[in-house]
Amino acid sequence: MSAQLQAIRGMSDILPEDAVAWQRIEGTLRDVLGAYGYREIRVPLLERTELFQRSIGEVTDIVEKEMYTFDDRNGVSLTLRPEATAGIVRAAIENGLLRNQRHRLWSTGAMFRYEKPQKGRYRQFHQFDIEALGFPGPDVDAELIVMLARAWRELGLRHLELQLNSIGMPEGRARYRAALTEYFRGHLAALDEDSQRRLERNPLRILDSKNPAMQALIAGAPLIGEYLDTESAVHFAAVQELLGAAGIAFRVNPRLVRGLDYYNRTVFEWVTDQLGTQGAVCAGGRYDGLVEQLGGSATPAIGCAIGLERLVELYRVCGGTPPAATVEIYVVAVGEGATALALRVAEQLRDARPGVAVEMNCGGGGFKAQLRRADASGATVALVIGEDEVAAGTVGIKPLRSDVAQVNVAVAGVVPAVAPYLRRQ
Ligand code: ATP
Ligand code: MG
């Protein structure tokens, strides 16, 4: 016997009973974003490797060690997208979306990172990605956050803290970088291996370390806030003021820097203490330089990504139970001519009651076996069609969750006859 095939480590199946929660969450996000004028964009899962090297940055965890990169049959280096922003910006430039225009966009789908799989951290995971291109802020920064707060509210999510910071502009960051390097050099022995490697190449990444042993040292490091240019400081103050006026609670976390290179000014994360170590469910920030860096004309922008696996988990923790998408009507068909009539009646019901799930018995069986399936399907009513019904042009209406006896009605009268048994009458 051959060995059983298995999914790739860190890549999960989402089974039908779990997919319902995903649909509820994705549907809510879609509706909320639509209400703010955001529109969907879909871009390929594969891009040239160069796109990610040039946007995310060479000295980041993603580009250094997390990308699924391979050569195609022509020897072109391709990478499965580890995040969505780069592809969306590439698409916006390539399709001329940015010529004196502004776009509020969203996208959703699978991302790929070669990470150590653990709870809340996978190799294929899903993000809901939001990008506002062509807006300098701070108005759109605040609106983005207000919109996310609405989405959490509509999903009934609790235990979320909004952390906010400004990382200023590249010039200030260069000075900050020098100060950080000097500080950490003074504590070389206390740095773990990762941090030592990051020290010369990208010391800001040390602040992002998840190693508990590093936290005290990080707590004593200089703060980026002291290196903000005036314009960034004004921008940051305005974001905070707008959020305050909108009644959004937040905490300024002066150590929040984010792991990707392209961010500037506003950065934020929504964090929960309910999911163990992987507590960030949504992260983002402003990236005013990225479009130009990728060959477009200078275009200010802000965006964020929601980690859907973590959001689904938090939804469960908060008691979210999506309505089960169960069958409401089961059609039993036994004998000569019954299947043809069953198909017709089921179609008639679907025409009259869109959204009601009608399951027709397929695969034969006697009345008893089919009614057992009807019961197991969760349906509240069965339509019973045998040779007698075919001959008389009628259908049996059999309630499945009460003692009410079966009645037979003319084919044309089926829709009103089942109405009392449906969830929405
Ligand atoms: P982390 O610090 O947890 O590694 P990150 O900074 O790499 O996160 P981003 O690239 O900003 O994450 O992605 C945004 C969100 O996507 C994260 O806040 C998280 O919810 C989710 N996410 C990132 N990587 C993974 C992963 N490997 N598995 C599941 N979700 C992820
Ligand atoms: Mg990461």
Quaternary class: single chain
What fraction strand?
15-25%
**Sheet with most strands:** 8 strands, mixed
Helix content: 25-40%
Instruction: Name the poorly predicted regions.
Output: none
Bound molecules: adenosine-5'-triphosphate, magnesium ion
Shape: elongated
Query: What spatial order of strands do you see in the largest sheet?
Result: 1-5-6-11-10-9-7-8
Which class do the helix and strand fractions yield?
alpha+beta
Count of helical regions: 15
Q: Round the mean pLDDT to the nearest integer and report it.
A: 94
Radius of gyration using CA atoms only: 28 Å
Using DSSP, what is the number of strands?
Answer: 16
Task: Report on this structure.
The protein is of the alpha+beta class and about 425 residues long. It contains 15 helices and 16 strands. The strands form 3 sheets. Strands 1-5-6-11-10-9-7-8 form an 8-stranded mixed sheet. A 5-stranded mixed sheet has the order 13-12-14-15-16, sandwiched between helices. A 3-stranded antiparallel sheet has the order 2-4-3. Strand 12 (about 330-335), helix 12 and strand 13 (about 360) form a beta-alpha-beta unit. It is elongated, with a radius of gyration of 28 Å. The chain starts with 15 loop residues before the first helix and ends in a 7-residue tail after the last helix. The model has no long low-confidence stretch (mean pLDDT about 95). The structure holds adenosine-5'-triphosphate and magnesium ion. Adenosine-5'-triphosphate (ATP) binds near residues 125, 259 and 281.
